[in-house]
Amino acid sequence: MTTGIELRDLRKRYEGHGGAGSWAVDGVDMQIGRGQFVTLLGPSGCGKTTTLRMIAGFEVPTSGQILRDGVDITDQPVTDREMRMVFQDFALFPNMTVAENVAFGLKTRRMKGRFGAAEMRRRVGEYLDLVHLGTHADKRPHQLSGGQKQRVSLARALITDPDVVLFDEPLGSLDAHLRKVMQIELIRLHRELNKTFIYVTHDQDEAMAMSDAIAVMNGGKVQQFGTPREIYDRPTSRYVAGFIGHAHIVEASVVESGASGLSVRLGNGEVVRLDAPASLQRGEAVGLMLRAEDLSLAKPGDGELHGKVSDSLYRGEYIEYVVDLKGGAGTVHVHEPTHAAPFAHGDDVALKVNPAKAHVVGGA
Amino acid sequence: MLLWLLPPVAWFSVFILVPYAMLFWYSLGHTEDMRFVPGLSLANFARVFTDEPYLGVILKSARIGLMTAILSAIVAWPLAFVIAFHTRSASVKFALYLLVIVPWWASYLVKAYAWKTILGTNGILNATLQGLGFTDEPVRLFLYNEFSVVLTLTYIFTPFAVLSIYAQLERIPTSLVEAAKNLGAGGWEIFWRIVLPISVPGIIAGGIITFSLAFGDFVAPVLVGGSDSVMISNIVINLLGVAFDWPMAAAIGLVIITLGLGLISLTGWLEEKTKVRL
């Protein structure tokens, strides 16, 4: 028996007018181990929120199964699931104080008798302290800032001690600074509480920073499921390579492939060597993924690729060069430290590729 | 710039200030041989509270108004709830909304009269009851009493309650209900602890409107009310048109207006207190 949440060929179809319809979720298989922090990442409309809402029980799957610790919960009503959700709009009850909001989950009919009044008060205090809101217990939600509201929502979700906590873009309505603060807060809570966190976001930085594993979704399907490092360094598809870290993909064909590494030739005849072992057919078309931080600029002749600087953008931490590769083979971006800025618009340059980091993705 | 102020000031003066001043002027006088005699006496106001039937009828009108307000709220709430929460399609929502308003396209009199044909001894209700064998002879309890007045007024004014409750319910985000379910709350708990409390200002707002309209009504008591169902507006009409006692009518009018203003301030305050910021 597997512990945690398992999704088996989960699908959800929304019917439109006149028989038109679309698959919001189109066959998702996933294993989320107990205590893991898993993020469903993708652009809007990719099916990530629908998947989360099916796990929560708000949406009924068209087909497929949801299992929890090996038990099928596909048809279990929302109220019985005891998975708590943190909503993007916080969903705090406006007619209750902060403390009453937090206590809500303890006071439902099904919880009756499980907690005495004193125990309840102690617990509410404890969870308000956990999210640093101990002094705001008697305020109303509208008197709180966005970040504070989300902390109340968190305390309300955590107080009943659920195994699984679901997050639907919880930081989406906060400003950039607050998002960073809350990310650290969420990582801390996950570490301290040892609960399964299933998190939905379209923000890849958020996903990379917090998750044990990321499911990159698109078109209702999981494109890749892996650790942030796997997804970033070894994307299995052009979609994932392009979505994560905005890698640039240059068309190439395999020259040589084996246990000791891989060589590919670009459209302009230049050849790049990669360290990663591969078993690809000679002549097979691949996409060469080149990330800005894996490239460096040099004088013509000092690198394996050549091109012309078409733009340079000062980014503060680094200078971003946009380089058009020789012979129209493609465009790449290169990050260079700001102290060395020897190149300007129109300069001919060479590019060195870090063979340990460059990566190919299959198919044309 | 001052030109912009002219229309509102003119409106306010001609239609509010001057009429009320006149009303007050009339209320201070008295009549001799059905002719108005100016004066500066508060005797008419004293009579409102001492002479029968004035105070009694005002209280009865208030009771009818209150019952109408309560009944309207009870009828309106579930309807508003269904329109706000259980109607997914926008066109169905619009259709239901329209059905609530549509009766207002028909004349008030027609609607009040319709109840006569429903509740009367030869009415639809009695015909149905006799047809089904529940009773041998027509039941006279349905018509010409306070019950029929309240029923008719409830029917006529419920749309106002529906609209104000709906306006409040519609503002509740679905995520609140989802959050409550997610936290393990059942349907009744969500109703009692979240949806109903948040809708209270809408219930109060609808209540003020239905109460005021029902309190001042004079058609329903005439058409479906019994001989004892006279309401305060009927008395005022009689004073004006039959007895030609305009000073007394003016005094009653002013007392009612003052009571009304007091009530509106009180409920306005209540509404503010129960308001939740969504």
TrEMBL record, chain A:
GO molecular function: ABC-type transporter activity; ATP binding; ATP hydrolysis activity
PROSITE patterns reported in the protein's UniProt record: ABC_TRANSPORTER_1, ABC_TRANSPORTER_2
Domain ABC transporter intervals: 5-244
Pfam family, one: TOBE_2
GO CC annotation terms, alphabetical: ATP-binding cassette (ABC) transporter complex
EC number: 3.6.3.31
Keyword Nucleotide-binding: yes
SUPFAM superfamilies: MOP-like, P-loop containing nucleoside triphosphate hydrolases
Keywords attached to this entry: ATP-binding, Hydrolase, Nucleotide-binding, Transport
Family matches, as InterPro entries: AAA+_ATPase (IPR003593), ABC_SmlMolc_Importer (IPR050093), ABC_transporter-like_ATP-bd (IPR003439), ABC_transporter-like_CS (IPR017871), Mo/tungstate-bd_C_term_dom (IPR008995), NA-bd_OB-fold (IPR012340), P-loop_NTPase (IPR027417), Transp-assoc_OB_typ2 (IPR013611)
Similarity remark: Belongs to the ABC transporter superfamily.
PANTHER family in UniProt: SPERMIDINE/PUTRESCINE IMPORT ATP-BINDING PROTEIN POTA, SPERMIDINE_PUTRESCINE IMPORT ATP-BINDING PROTEIN POTA
Name under which the protein is recorded: Spermidine/putrescine import ATP-binding protein PotA
Organism: Pseudogemmobacter humi
UniProtKB/TrEMBL annotation, chain B:
Pfam hit, one: BPD_transp_1
Membrane topology: Multi-pass membrane protein
Cellular compartment(s): Cell membrane
One Gene Ontology term from the biological process aspect of the record: transmembrane transport
Keywords assigned: Cell membrane, Membrane, Transmembrane, Transmembrane helix, Transport
CDD domains xref list: TM_PBP2
GO cellular component, one term: plasma membrane
Keyword Transport: yes
Keyword Flavoprotein: no
Residues in ABC transmembrane type-1 domain copies: 58-267
Transmembrane segments annotated in the record for this chain: 9-28, 64-85, 94-115, 147-169, 190-215, 248-270
Gene3D superfamilies the UniProt entry points to: MetI-like
Domain of life: Bacteria
Family: Belongs to the binding-protein-dependent transport system permease family. CysTW subfamily.
Annotated protein name in UniProt: Putrescine transport system permease protein PotH
Organism from which the protein derives: Pseudogemmobacter humi
